[in-house]
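note to self: the first set is below, dont mix up w the second
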Amino acid sequence: MNEHPVTLHVMDDLRRSRLTVFFRFLLVLPHLIWLYLWAVLVDIVALLNWLVALIIGRPAKPFQRFIAAWLRYATTVFAYMFLIANPFPGFTGEPGSYPIELEVPTTPEKQNRLKTFFRILLVYPALIVGAVLMYATYFVTMLAWWAAMITGRMPRGFRDLGANAIRYLMQVYAYLFLVTGTYPSSSPYVGMSLGASVVEEAPAKKAPAKK
């Protein structure tokens, strides 16, 4: 794993409940509503944070922590919606509360005022790439839904593709909202940590000893 201030840690074991997979797009609706309402406040805070960063050369710590919590929460919502993780996530974005976790800076860093002023223009190419990745993830999720319904587990390749799309999108938002001054990385190896994800098989029974 190459370092990036915004890193996605994947600790999911790939097992899926067919029942929750079948109703996944209904189960995620309350989270999508809450994510949208929270995002409205994030947009306001991000604008204030931008003004603060222009004045003092770094974001305000309360704003940074608020936006960081939203980024962690958004990560769990997208991970659940795209079948990248189980179980049903919480609504607060607390660190250490989900098998797919976003490590994001909560302490503001010094940032170049000129780059801060033009941040919306600088991030635009990354936003386009992020949008393309997310549309591709929708397609992959439909295939993964069928695979999970049949086998009761998420194919690792589909899981990793979706996780990488989320990683990139969260790096884009973190850069846009001044959580970090590091530009999003298109490499799937930068800011991605894949933990153990092999479903453990039950130990094989020993054959009875021959008499």
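second set (the one i keep forgetting abt)
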Amino acid sequence: MKYKLVLFDVDGTLFDFETAEREAFEKTFNQFGIENDLQRLHKEYEIINSAIWRDFELKRITSEELRIERFRRFFAKENIQLDPLIFSPVYLKRLSEGTHLLPGAKEIISFLNGKCELALATNGLADVQNPRFAGSELAKYFQHIFISEEIGHPKPNPEFFQHIFQKLSYKESAIIIGDSLSSDIKGGNDFGIDTCWFNPNKYNNDTGIVPKFEINDLSELKEIII
């Protein structure tokens, strides 16, 4: 075995967050009586939400602030007369129900099961990620789940990884796999563990953040990890 511990990012790596998020967005707005123009509204929301999560990675905003602030900004921009304090918990409940997996996710996790320790390492909200994971087909395969909100520090900050390796003594034989260069790969690189960028859309990497490995299909992990 090349690696004793494999850290997997969740959204965009194993879980189909785009589908779960879009469904939660549409269902929540329908519940609040808004059914028109949802495709356009969702695109505008994604822009604001991405910026908010980037601020979270940089520790410019807390997870508690993030929950409300993204909808406050979005509602203000679109002149939507809804209360973010009421809307956000309903949306998060819907999002916590989204357990869609990406192609090949169950297959690769099943293959790795018993060959190494598996852990989730996510920059998510605990009341979303815990129920999503518990309700998914992958729950039985993982020994550990690390959520930034519970740790108190998001990826790529070193404190996130320090928390993990205070509990698990595998730093010299660990790898993190994720779709985010700025979060997963930068965090792993900075902390001194091996990194694998999951890049199914074959994006060009002009960030200066260089992973040790790059894959386009999760099945490629078999040759890297074993």
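remember for set 2: The chain has a mean pLDDT of 96.
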